[in-house]
Amino acid sequence: MARIDLDLAHAYGPNPRSDEDYALLPLRFTFDDGGAYALLGPSGCGKTTLLNCISGLLRPSQGTVSFDGRDVTGDSPQARNIAQVFQFPVIYDTMTVGQNLAFPLRNRGVPAAQVRERVGQVAEMLDLSAVLDRQASGLSADAKQKISLGRGLVRHDVAAILFDEPLTVIDPHLKWQLRRKLKQIHREFHLTLIYVTHDQTEALTFADQVVVMSRGKAVQVGTADALFERPAHTFVGHFIGSPGMNFLPARWRDGWIELAGRRYAPPADEAIAQRLQAAGAFKIGVRPEYLRLARPDDEQAVPAVIERAQDIGTYWIAAARLQDHAGGAGVEGTDGIVGANGIVGADGSPLLRARLGDEAAALRPGETAWFSVFHRHTCYYVDEELVR
Amino acid sequence: MKPINQKAWLLVLPVVVCVAFSAILPLMTIVNYSVQDIISPERRVFVGTEWFRAVLRDGELHDALLRQLGFSLAVLLVEIPLGILLALSMPARGWKASAVLVIVALSLLIPWNVVGTIWQIFGRTDIGLLGAALAGLGFDYNYTGNALDAWLTVLVMDVWHWTPLVGLLCYAGLRAIPDAYYQAAQIDGASRWAVFRHIQLPKLRGVLMIAVLLRFMDSFMIYTEPFVLTGGGPGNATTFLSQYLTQKAVGQFDLGPAAAFSIVYFLIILLLCFVLYNWMQRAGTVAEEVPHA
Amino acid sequence: MHDPASRGGWWRAAFLLVYLLFAILPIYWMLNMSFKTNDEILSTLSLWPAQFTLEHYRTIFTDSSWYSGYINSLIYVALNTVISVTVALPAAYAFSRYQFIGDKHVFFWLLTNRMTPPAVFLLPFFQLYTSVGLMDTHLGVALAHLVFNVPLAVWILEGFMSGVPREIDETAYVDGYSFPRFFLTIFLPLIKAGVGVAAFFCFMFSWVELLLARTLTSVDAKPIVATMTRTVSASGMDWGVLAAAGVLTIVPGGIVIWFVRHYIAKGFAMGRV
Q1: Which Pfam families does the annotation name (chain A) (predicted)?
Q2: A338 has pLDDT over 70
Q3: Partner-chain residue, chosen from B198, B291, B293, that has the shortest CB–CB distance to A92
C-alpha cells in the first residue's frame, strides 16, 4: 500500500515544442494510499501511457514518480513492487492455476509453506480454490483474468494494483461479477487501485475518484458526483453521462443572456455573471437529466421544436431543436459549433436532449415545447472551461 | 462454417491441371517403368514386383538410407537450437532489425549449386579461408579424402544454408508474442531463463513443430549441395538418398529399378508428409490460442 | 518503452555478431576471390585482393555462354512466378471460402508435391518434356517448377485470404460487384502482402533449384546454375570466373530480399514455407 505522487510529463520525441508532441502533458497528482482511482478517457488520450509511467514499464521523459515520498522514477516495476492486470489475461500456459499464483512468491524466495498458505488465501478470495490443480490454459477468460489479478494480490506488500482495461475480453454478463469482486477486494485489503478504462460506467462505479483524460491532459479529477454535477470542461460534460451534457451557445447582451434570440436573466452569482460579460460569447451546459418541461409563460423557459421522443423503457429521451425569436429554427452566432451531442442541424441550430418521465409521451414531433434550462444545475463554459 | 459450393472446383481447376501435368503424368510413367524390365526401348518385359523386392534388398540402398537418416538427425540436432538462439538474438524493431534480417536471409536465396561451390572453395586448404585456417591450426583437414571431414563439412554447409529458415520462423513466432507477457513476467520477478521456459518456448511450440518437420523432410531430399561439394565422396561416404537415386536413374540408366526406388522413396516422404500435415493442423489450432491484442 | 524481449544483455549481441560473421564470411570469401586474378588466387591467401581486377566480371558480361545463363534463369523464374501466383489466386480463394467435394484431399495432394524429391521426377520429366517438345525451353523449366511452387503459393495465399473477413465478400455482392471485378478491385489490394510473400517464395525456390533446371535444358535455355556446374567439370578450374559467377547469382536474391524485407517476417509468421 503506498501513496503515489506524480509530477511528470511524457513527450514522444526529444524536443517537444507544442502540445501535440506530448503523449502526456505536464501533470501533478497524488494517489492516496488505499484509494480506488479510475483513469477515464477515449482511445489515445494517454491513460495507458500514464499507467505505464506509474508501473515503471515506461519512464517519463521529464518529471518524477514517488512512492511514499521515495523517488522511484528510475526503478523497474519489480523494484516498485506493483502489480498490473492487462487487457487480456496473461497467464503462464505451462503451469497450473496454483503454480501461476505461486510464481511471483517463488521468484522472491518465499518459503514453500508460506507460499501454499498465501496461494490458498488468494484462491479462496477469488473463488479459484476448486481449480487450483488444473492447467491454467484451459480455463475461461474471466477465470484467467482472476488468475492475473491473483498474481498481483498474492504478494503481501504490493504497493498498488494497476488495471489496464481488464474487462475488455470478459463476457458482458460476467463483467459486473468481476467488478463487484474488485470492489470487495478493495474494501478488504485497502490496496491502492488504479483502473484504466474508456467505459464510464466501469469508472464511475469502481472508483472513489476519477481522472478524466483527453489528448494527454488530465482534464478533471473528482468523484463521480462532482464529474456529473460540475464538469470542469465541456469534454467531461460530453464524455460523462448517457447521453452527454447539452451545450447551448449564447451571448451576453446588455446585461442579459441572449439564447436562441430570446433574453434571459443572468446567473445570480456575480462572479460568474462578470466573467460571462467579459467573454461575450459562451456556452450553457445542462444535462438531459436536469431539463424539465416548463410552462410557456415562464420567463426563463426556452422554446424548442420537438424532433422525436423515444421511450427507452424506464424513461424517455426527447430531442428538440432550439428556436429563435422569430419562430424559425435557426440561431445566430452559432459559428459552426458542434453541439455536445455532436449534432448540428443543417441550419446550424443545436439539438437539445432531455431525459423525461412519462410526460414526454404527450410530445409530438413538430410542436414547440418549453424547457426550463436555467437552474442550480446549469453550468457555464467560456472557451470550453467551466466558469466558477 | 464455409458454405458448400461445388462450382468452386472451377477456381481450382487451373491449379490442378498445372500440377497434374507436372506431377501425375510423370508419376504414371514411373509406376509403369517400375514393373517392367526395359532392355531396350522396344523390348520391355513385365516383371511385376521384382524390382521392388530387389530395391528393398539392396545393400547399397540400405547404406544410403542409413547415411541419410544420420544426416537428417544431425541436421535437426544442430539447426533447431541454433535457429532458436538466432531468433532470440535478432533485434525486434528498428533499422537494425531490417539489416540483420537481410543478412540472415541471404543464404536462403543462393542457388543451391552456388552454396556447394562457396563451401567447396572455402574448405580447400590452398585457396579457401576455412581450409587454410584449419591447416594452419595443425588439423589434417581434407574434405575430399577424409570421410569424417567430408561429413562435417557437408553438415556445416547445411547448417550455414538452412538455419536461417528455422531462425526466421522462430523470429516471426517471437514477434507474435504480445508485450504484455514480458511485462507481466518482469512484474512477477521472473528470471531470463524462466521467461524463455514459460513464455517464449510454449508460444513457439507450433512454429517449432513446423520447422522440425520441414527441415527433416527437406534434408531427406537433399541433392545439389553435397553433390557439388563432395560429389558423394570420398567413395560414397556422403552419398545420400537423392544422389543414389539419380545415379541409378540417370547414371546407370537402370530405368526399372530406378523407377521402383523412386516409388519407395516417394512413399517414405508421403508418410512423413502426412505426419507433417496433421501436426501442422494441430499446431494451427494451438497457435490460435495466442490472443491478438 | 524498453523492449522487454531484449533483456539478456551482452551475450545476445555477441552471439548475433558471431553468427552474422559466420553467415557472411563464406560469401565474402567468394566475393574476395572474384576480384583477384587467378594467379593470385592460387598463390596467396589474403582477405582482400592485392591486385584488384574486374577481368572475371568482364568475361561473364561479354561471354554469351555466361551471361545468357543469367538471362535464361531470370526468364524462367519470372515465368514461373507469374504462372504460379496467377493460377494459385483463384484456387486459394476457393479453399479459403468454400467447401467442396474432395477439397481437403486436393489440398493435401498439392502439399505432397512440395514434398516430393525432385530426383524422383528427373527421368519421367525428361521423357515427358521431350515428347511434347518442351525440352530446352524456358517454358519447360517454368512448368516443371510449378510442381512445388504452385502448392506453396496456394498455401501461402490461402493463409492470407482466410484473414480477410467474409463480410467483405458479401458486402461486395450485395453492392452488385461481379466476381472478377470484386476480386481485382477489392480483394486483391487487401491481400497484397500475401501476394508479395507468395511471389517471393516462388522466386526463391525456382531461382535456387538445380536438378530439374539442368536436366531439362541443354543449350537454348541453359540456366546459370547449369553453366556453373559444367564449368566445374571442365578441365582447369577457372576459379575467378566461377567466383564472379557465383557472386552474380546472389545479386537478384539480395535485391528481392531487400524489397520484401518487411513481408518476410509476416510470411514466416504464417508458418507456411
Answers
A1: ABC_tran, OB_MalK
A2: no
A3: B198
**Residues C26, B265: C-beta atoms closer than 8 Å:** no
Read off the DSSP letter of residue A255. Answer: T
What are chain B's partners, defined as 3 or more CB pairs within 8 angstroms?
A: A, C
The pLDDT of residue B237 is above 60: yes
**The C-alpha cell that represents B134 in the structure block:** 584449419
Is the Cβ pair A107, B190 closer than 8 Å? yes
Nearest CA to B172 out of B109, B96, B83, B106 is that of: B83
What ipTM is given for this predicted complex?
0.82
Q: How is residue C207 written as a grid cell?
A: 531461382
Domains of chain C: 64-269 (1.10.3720.10)
> By CA distance, what is A108's nearest residue in B?
B189
Contact B98, C261 (CB under 8 A): yes
Question: Does residue B81 carry a pLDDT above 60?
Answer: yes
Which bin fits A233, alpha (ψ -120 to 50), beta or left (φ > 0)? beta
Domains of chain A by start residue, with CATH? 4-239 (3.40.50.300), 246-386 (2.40.50.140)
Where would I find the beta strands (DSSP E) of A183-315? Answer: 192-197, 209-214, 217-222, 246-253, 256-259, 262-264, 281-286, 292-293, 301-311
| Poorest-pLDDT segment among A96-100, A236-240, C2-6, C95-99 | C2-6
Pick from B180, B187, B291: which is nearest to A77 by CB?
A: B187
CB spacing of B198 vs A76 below 8 angstroms: no
pLDDT at A337: 41
Contact C76, C213 (CB under 8 A): yes
Tens digits of residue pLDDT in C181-228:
888 888 888 887 788 878 888 888 888 887 788 888 888 888 877 777
Judging contacts by C-beta atoms under 8 Å, the chain B residues touching residue C140 are: none
Q: How far apart are CA C124 and CA C141, in angstroms?
A: 14
Distance from CA of B189 to the nearest CA of A (A): 6
CB contact under 8 A, A107 and B183: no
List of chain B residues whose C-beta atoms are within 8 Å of the C-beta of residue C116 = 23, 221, 266, 269
